[in-house]
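Notebook B, p. 112. Complex prediction, attempt 2.
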Amino acid sequence: MVFDILSFGFMQNAIISGIAISLICSTVGLFLVLRKYSLFGDALAHSAFGGVALGLFLGFYPLWAAYAVSILSALALTKIRQKFDISGDAIIAILLSSGIAVGIVLISLSGGFSIDIFSFLFGSVLLVSTENVIGILGMCAAILIILIIGYKKFMYITFSEEQARVSGIRVEKLNYLLIAIAGITVVTSMQLVGVLLVSALFVIPNVTAMMFKRSFKQTIILSMSFSVFSTVAGILISYPLDIAPSGMVVLLAITLFIGSLVMKSAGMIKTTGILAKRA
Amino acid sequence: MIVDISELSVSYDGIGALEKISFGINKGDFLGIIGPNGAGKSTLFHCMLGLHLEYQGTIKFFNKDIRKSEEYLTHIGYVPQKPVVDRNFPATIREVVSMGQANNDPDMVDEALQKVWMHELADRRIGDLSSGQQQRVFIAKALVSSPKILVLDEPVTGVDIHNKDLFFQILSELNSKEKISIIWSSHDLDAVERLANKVACLNKTLFFHGISQEFFSDEEMMKKYSETSMQMHMHHH
């Protein structure tokens, strides 16, 4: 039956782009989660929703508008946060509600919710055309290359901005780059997963992976594995059941999280988190 | 002279934190910077490390004004005040030491860890270590880029005595054997007397800078230091 499903071109597109999206969401998400920015993906997704509505309202291709709005609002709010010393959670709340507010106003002005808007809210395998797959793969490859090249610096900044700055790393520039990458990741992912659930792929696989208390590299690999499994299995299961794949993807990610919690409570996860002996 | 600080003044919202501080550091110096809480030690360090640029006066490292070039930072290893390490941060000691390094030379990381006697624990996670062990890891991190100067801002606050002694022994060896100049702020006068060859005594202004033995053998100076510390303590409470 799996092979029957995979024989459809649109499912192949969804699976291929789903794997690529899972890889970047888990990698970008780890940096955000470790910076206590878990909800930033959610806020970016909501601002991207405002961008989609703006695109539809003005007659642009909605995804380009979403990219522009998501990146610009992320950069602007990061700047505002630094300059006016506003806390991260407050900024996230502002970004989240303004994206939705802009979206609602523009959708109302343009005559109400359409099928396009619902597709972006909940994600759709049908949204991913072959051209989209090429775009998604290109975007994901570029993001992964940037993260692989700069990962030691991104990791250092995430660990300690002060120490990273003293070691000569251009912290502000790299912070802006990471935030812009997060914005691009959100918009790239929301075609498949939807605005409402995209941040789940940023957070849940990473929190699950962190329970295994491994090294940074191993944590990223674990998180990627959980993310890819949830996405591929979610798409495959949702199709015959005729349900939105995003919900199933996130439910599977949550199942892995709960399973890991149970295994950890039962002492079944072997971690390296042993208290070091005093040297 | 490898560090030259001249007429350094800093104020926050009109309140002076440092007033016209001037002193120099020579190659090979082990300088202990002492002073009560609120004396401006951290402010001085932040200025020297380029973290705070709103100051009057000049700071030169290797004869270059730090406002004009950040290149000097590549010659500095910095160990912050006991850092708050998130216990859940997924990084091993080896990963922490190699963070931010452009060249990925595992031998240099191992060598740095050996100097602080942490190489056997290299694959442990940083969050699983005691605070004293974490500080030794941060020295290794500072050493991995072969610095000419180590800057340590009250590095052993809250560290147990055993790890404190190990820490001091490491600093002493780095200074005497590796010829690394050390700038170290501390409340621990006994340790400063034992380790540092130079002392800078700070309380917004610099009221002593010179040979360590001269400071600690000068009863008048010690009395003045105690009075100032007490005044600052009363002020804080």
